[in-house]
Amino acid sequence: MNIDILLGLQWGDEGKGKIVDALSPAYDVIARFQGGPNAGHSLEFNNSKHVLHLIPSGIFHPGKLNIIGNGVVFDPAVFRSEIEKLGLGVGELAKRLVISSRAHLILPTHRVLDAAYENRKGCLKIGSTLKGIGPAYTDKASRNGLRVGDVLKPGFRELYNEHMAAHLEILKGYDYKFDISEFEAEWFSGIEMTKRFRIENTEYLVNSLSDQGRKILAEGAQGTMLDLDFGSYPFVTSSNTISAGACTGLGISPKRTGEVFGIFKAYCTRVGSGPFPTELNDDTGDLLRKTGCEFGATTGRPRRCGWLDLTALKYAIMINGATKLLMTKADVLSGFEKVKICTSYMIDGKETSEMAFDGNTEIKPCYTELKGWKEDISAIRDYNSLPGTLREYISFIEKEVGVPVTMVSVGPDRIATITREPL
Ligand code: GDP
Ligand code: IMO
Ligand code: MG
Question: CB atoms < 10 A from the CB of 182, how many?
Fold first, then answer.
């Protein structure tokens, strides 16, 4: 039971990167289990800011092992540029990072396919990050994929050409212009960079480290409401972002898992299309976006903003079996006279606390209004020093969802974190 899981309970961007970085000193290993470069995990410390896409968020802690698990889809070009930006030296990083041979590769033509599919969707676009995620997972499921372990084969270039030719055949059916020559060159230099790292069947590594009693933190990407099965399909990503995804994405038994840390923002955001019942298309939404700097870490797109949605949060807690909740961005809600929390939905004139099956269902949120707090809380490090009305906001959430909020984040820096109980 020494593998804890940390994942997003909303539509992604809950602050996973910041919290994983803050929790890393308590772990020996940090392992990403799904998603790929669609993720953008931001970390801040010592007045510097970093955004990670493929690399686990424990990378800045010397002595910690980071693993890119089999459930991840891996783009070597993104990997190379990320490694170079870190500025820690390839030699040092190669000691801290291992890549699963079973992780599937995102090919340059997967990106083109992603864009061509979106282009054809017209007004029903998913709002994909266009990183090739969907097409790469599609090839995995249809047993046409290439994997990281394949790059070590002498005939890899031929394998690549065969896969690319199949993609080009599909693209003939799409009226979509592209030129991948420049990107292909970057991709192949990414392959050379990847080969400088340990590539192995990381399921053995993870299980043997767990047998040795090492503490492992499985880091999720995206969020539960973007899960392929339980999110607002079809406006979802192409992987299982939920706690079960950690087992398939790392090769571990559920019996080895311990805490499930569920992260949520004190309000809600979403990038891309799809239902968002508490969305605020008004000045309050604009204010949340501005104060919370709500712009995508991967694409720079403005994030849609709205009040906290407890109906969606309860659903996410149920699906994941979340044992502890971590609330981020409480500081962004400072200054409101009143804050609202959605406690149920009205669908077809009936009140319900169930998530709708159909992503196009019209949903009206029912709100409870609570008193806001005016103080700047970003320098507070002790729970009892937080404004009483914020503590009431948190108590209200805990009572509604039945799971304790054990950590409150009050700023982007790793130290702007209030822990209510030891890990
Ligand atoms: P992730 O994808 O879940 O890792 O989240 P992102 O990094 O995409 O987005 C979260 C954003 O909020 C980043 O810019 C973080 O630096 C920032 N952030 C995280 N926690 C807090 C917090 O408690 N307060 C504020 N103001 N910003 C935070
Ligand atoms: P992190 O890990 C927020 C969204 C996209 C789009 C949908 C499908 O930073 O929380 P995809 O590129 O996966 O095919 O896009 O999912 N999306 C995210 N939204 N945070 C993310 O990751 C996301 N990754 C994908 O905007 O709506
Ligand atoms: Mg993000």
Answer: 9
State the Cα–Cα distance between residues 179 and 40, nearest whole angstrom: 26
Q: What are phi and psi of 179, to 5 degrees?
A: -145, 115
Catalytic residue among 4, 13, 139, 413: 13
Is 105 in contact with 74 (CB distance < 8 Å)? yes
What tokens were used for 419?
């822990």
Q: Is 163 a catalytic residue?
A: no
Q: Which amino acid is at 193?
A: M
* Distance from residue 39's CA to the centre of ligand 3 (Å): 5
Contact 294, 311 (CB under 8 A): no
Dihedral sign from CA coordinates of 187, 190, 192, 195:
negative
Residues 6+ apart with CB under 8 A from 319: 224, 227, 230, 242, 243
**Whether 326 contacts 19, CB under 8 Å:** yes
Is 249:230 a contact under the CB 8 Å cutoff?
no
Which region holds residue 251: left if phi is over 0, alpha if psi is between -120 and 50, else beta?
left
Express each pLDDT in 281-307 by its tens digit: 999 999 999 999 999 877 888 999 999
Does the pTM exceed 0.90? yes
Whether 118 contacts 125, CB under 8 Å: yes
